[in-house]
Amino acid sequence: MSTTQNNTAEIDGVCDMLNNISTADNDDSTSTCANCGKEGSDVTNTCNKCKSVKYCNAACKKKHRHKHKKKECERRVAELHDEQLFKQPPQLEDCPICFLRLPYLGSGSVYMSCCGKLVCRGCYYAVTKRDTIIGLCPFCRTPSSSSDAEMIQRFEKRIDVDDDAYAMHNLGCRYRNGEYGLSQSHAKALKLFLRAAELGHTDAYYSIARAYVMGTGVVVDMEKALHYWELAAMGGSAASRYNLGEFERQDGNYHRALKHYMIAVAGGVHNALGRIQELYTDRRAAKEDYAKALRSYQAYLDEIRSDQRDEAAAADDDYTYYHSAF
Ligand SMILES: [Zn+2]
Ligand SMILES: [Zn+2]
Ligand SMILES: [Zn+2]
Ligand SMILES: [Zn+2]
Fold first, then answer.
1. How far apart are CA 142 and CA 44, in angstroms?
2. Which bound ligand lies closest to the C-alpha atom of 97?
3. Which ligand approaches the C-alpha of residue 77 most closely?
4. Which ligand is nearest to the CA of 109?
5. Spacing, Cα 81 to ligand 2 middle (Å)
6. Closest Cα partner for 197 from 183, 208, 185, 210?
């Protein structure tokens, strides 16, 4: 199918773009040519791969090629990649009404297609309880859409008017699943995911990775899936971070797995805490690692818990917004 091919090409385009962004920001004002030793602000010709060796011109770069060892260069490329990968990612935004951090669990927040706000379940539930009219948006007071078609229209409007990446990703998921009166289209779903990804929406990277794992609209490609999970994880997707941990664990890279799980725990992934406990039991992680993970999860809970959210969770099992440590 030609549409599938197109999407793959576009996805690669996004990859290149992001690769360039992540390596472009470590420029010093003056540098030394690795070949002739010349110093100056005009020594800007870098090794295309590791970007960490500089030359004054293309001739010096060419002369130095046999001295700039492939292994060394590759090691540096891997180092730079890991520096980016294991940086503490940004955390989920706060609820715009109660100003508390939004929980990791999807059931703990609601996307409002009227105003594009992601509000916590606690605030949503409080309004539902208070108002006699069911389904008023707790942020902008718009009544909830009366039909599937109206909700889809709202998504489309959010996209047209505000370039809303949440709406793009949401609508993409509806196309992927063939829900809310839409006929299933993986091509449309991917197109929307890519648009949202270009705007930096981490869930969209996650969904692209998922497409590569499942082979929905693209050919199964685990390497690409990993790449998108990495982008998602670096942007703060804790679910992707957990998946990266799983990937490393299955490969027997327990140290890297632990690093991913540790970040995932801080992002609220309860399963990651369980994995760290397993690693500790199997003597693949230290007691201090496990203790640190427990503290980190507790700190996460302290940030997201509130009476209002507890009240919503008590009213309906579907509104659960966290799992207790054990
Ligand atoms: Zn030179
Ligand atoms: Zn190099
Ligand atoms: Zn709230
Ligand atoms: Zn609203």
1. 55
2. 3
3. 2
4. 3
5. 13
6. 208
Q: How far is the CA of 288 from the centre of ligand 3 (A)?
A: 34
Q: How far apart are CA 84 and CA 234, in angstroms?
A: 7
Residue 326 has pLDDT above 80, yes or no: no
CA 150 to centroid of ligand 4, rounded, Å = 14
| Closest ligand, as measured to the CA of 50 | 2
Kindly report, residue by residue over 223-232, the tens digit of the pLDDT.
999 999 999 9
User: Which residue's entry shows tokens 């090409």?
Assistant: 9
Name the amino acid, one letter, at 197: A
- The residues, ordered by sequence, that sit 6+ positions from 237 with a Cβ below 8 Å of its Cβ are 202, 203, 205, 206, 229
Q: Which of 232, 241, 240 is nearest to 196 (CA)?
A: 232
Question: Which ligand is the nearest neighbour of the Cα of 321?
Answer: 3
Residue positions counted in the chain: 326
User: How many A from CA of 38 to the centre of ligand 2?
Assistant: 18
The pTM of this model reads 0.83
Distance 301 CA to ligand 4 centre (A): 27
pLDDT for 146-174, tens place per residue? 899 999 999 999 999 999 999 999 999 99
Q: How far is the CA of 296 from the centre of ligand 3 (A)?
A: 22
| CA–centroid distance, residue 279 to ligand 3 (Å) | 35
Token pair 């955390």 is at which residue? 91
Domains contained in the chain, CATH given? 28-69 (no CATH), 91-144 (3.30.40.10)
pLDDT one-digit tens code per residue, 63-85: 998 888 888 889 988 999 999 99
Ligand nearest to the CA of residue 142, numbered in listed order: 4
Query: Of 252, 161, 158, 172, whose CA–CA distance to 205 is shortest?
Result: 172
